[in-house]
From TrEMBL:
Superkingdom, taxonomy of origin: Bacteria
Name by which UniProt lists this protein: Uncharacterized protein
Naturally occurring in which organism (per UniProt): Mesorhizobium japonicum
Length: 85
C-alpha cells in the first residue's frame, strides 16, 4: 500500500539567484555527496575543486560559498570555514 507523503515547504526546491547556474549546483552536490561524512568539508578545498570543474566565471566566490554552506547544512555535514579571501 502506498502512503501519501507530504513534502515540507522548506524541502521544496527554491528559485536560484540569477548569478548561480545549474552546473554549479550539480557540481556542489556531487562534491558534497562524494565527501566523507566523518570529516569536515573544507570551504577553501571545495571552492578550488568546484571552480576547476565548473569553468563559469559567472558565479562569484561569495555566491558559491553560500551554495556550499547551504548544501552542506542540508546534508548535515560539518564545515571548516578556512577560506580567508
Amino acid at each position: 500500500m502506498l502512503a501519501k507523503v507530504r513534502v515540507p515547504r522548506e524541502a521544496a526546491m527554491r528559485q536560484l539567484p540569477f548569478d548561480i547556474d545549474a552546473d554549479s549546483v550539480i557540481e556542489v552536490g556531487r562534491y558534497l555527496d562524494d565527501h566523507a561524512k566523518t570529516t569536515a568539508v573544507s570551504m577553501s578545498e571545495a571552492l578550488r575543486v568546484i571552480r576547476r570543474r565548473v569553468n563559469s566565471a559567472r558565479v562569484g566566490d561569495s555566491r558559491l560559498e553560500e551554495l556550499i554552506l547551504e548544501s552542506a547544512a542540508t546534508r548535515k555535514l560539518a564545515l571548516l570555514l578556512d577560506n580567508h579571501n
